[in-house]
Amino acid sequence: MEEAQRRALRRGRARLVLALQVAPLWDPLEERGLFTRTMVEELQSAGSRGDQARQLVIDLETRGKRAFPVFLSILRDTGQGDLADMLIKECECLPVSPQLVDLRPVELDLRGEKRNKKCLIATCACQVYELKADPCGHCLILNNVEFSGDSNLSTRDGSNVDCKKLEKRFKSLHFDVLTRQNLKAEEMVSELRALARRDHSALDCCVVVILSHGCQTSHIQFPGGVYGTDGKPIPIEKIVNYFNGSNCPSLRGKPKLFFIQACGGEQRDRGFPVDCDSPGNEAPGGSLESDATPFWTLAGGTDEPDAVASLPTPSDILVSYSTFPGFVSWRDASSGSWYVETLDNVLEQYAHSEDLLNMLLRVANAVSAKGRYKQIPGCFNFLRKKFFFVCK
């Protein structure tokens, strides 16, 4: 399929999801060789009519050069010529050049040269996630501060500071923010499942932030776990899988971002000497605490991986951890955690000009330079495109 046709499908996706009648399409799609019977059955199992329509449009991009004109013909044959006309109009109004370029200013720190030089990085628009909806998507923040006495977990002083910063930040980035505080493990799972079951068809993204004590867990894909206030752990892997392509069809092909402020284990990193100039900031004043808890081996294993017809299951997912698996994550009782404080500062300074991965590198670099003990954030990245927040 030509790039102009792909972009026409993407630009017309919202109207197709709203209006496309999919039931009359299944037989012609199979008869004309665009999809096999198995593929059609997988599309039919995608969920509601809107979910089926969205997945059909996404999958059409993978069906070769004939897919676009044949699809238009089928639309006309099934009495949906207005949608075919809309797609033709979208295709014709696009520039003739196949490379739609998006120029974004980025600050570069060049050793030995004047700092804060501005340059323009050319990015093909097809390599950038489109965030056109307002709000961009839902942002769920789970903030656990006070834990039950029998959990043997301490109060997470400073976490409310983190929570307020992130509420304000994601609202400014055009997300619909929902905060829940002091939830037991079962209540956390209930909130996450409720968000995953919502219809995200009209939205372009989803963000989940978890502020809690954490631990190591057995895993297949994503390491670590977080605790409910009752001291019961939830694997990060399980949380992420609620939102994958099989369990949350209306978020297929859309970025799903997870930010985890919790320990990955009990190890304390004292770092190692370096010869280059490296800031040696001591931890900020106040009481320095960690979100560490002992290693847990979970009974029953973890969720089995599943598959989606057009995209790998973990696609369009990014999980940002406050610390390396196995190590503690530091939090100051008065100013909040190192990770969230730095993340918030970086988003404030660079969200208008840099993509998310580049900003997370800035976060990792800044946090790694702090304190007597060391901490370095990291991420598991399965995004397929560059992600830029919306800053207006």
UniProtKB/TrEMBL annotation:
Q: Which InterPro entries match?
A: CARD (IPR001315), CARD_CASP9 (IPR042147), Caspase-like_dom_sf (IPR029030), Caspase_cys_AS (IPR033139), Caspase_his_AS (IPR016129), DEATH-like_dom_sf (IPR011029), Pept_C14 (IPR002398), Pept_C14_caspase (IPR011600)
Show the Pfam families listed in the entry: CARD, Peptidase_C14
Superkingdom, according to UniProt? Eukaryota
Q: What are this entry's molecular-function GO terms? A: cysteine-type endopeptidase activity
Question: Start and end of every Caspase family p20 domain?
Answer: 135-267
Domain annotation Caspase family p10: ranges: 307-391
Which key words are in the record? Apoptosis, Hydrolase, Protease, Thiol protease, Zymogen
GO annotations under biological process? apoptotic process; proteolysis; regulation of apoptotic process
PROSITE patterns hit by this protein = CARD, CASPASE_CYS, CASPASE_HIS, CASPASE_P10, CASPASE_P20
According to the entry, every stretch annotated as the CARD domain falls at 1-90
SMART domains found in the cross-reference section: CARD, CASc
User: Catalytic positions?
Assistant: 213, 263
Q: Does this entry carry the keyword Hydrolase?
A: yes
Xref: PANTHER family: CASPASE RECRUITMENT DOMAIN-CONTAINING PROTEIN 18 (PTHR47901), CASPASE-3 (PTHR47901:SF8)
Family according to the record: Belongs to the peptidase C14A family.
Task: Quote the protein name from its UniProt record.
Answer: CASP9 protein
What is this protein's gene name? Casp9
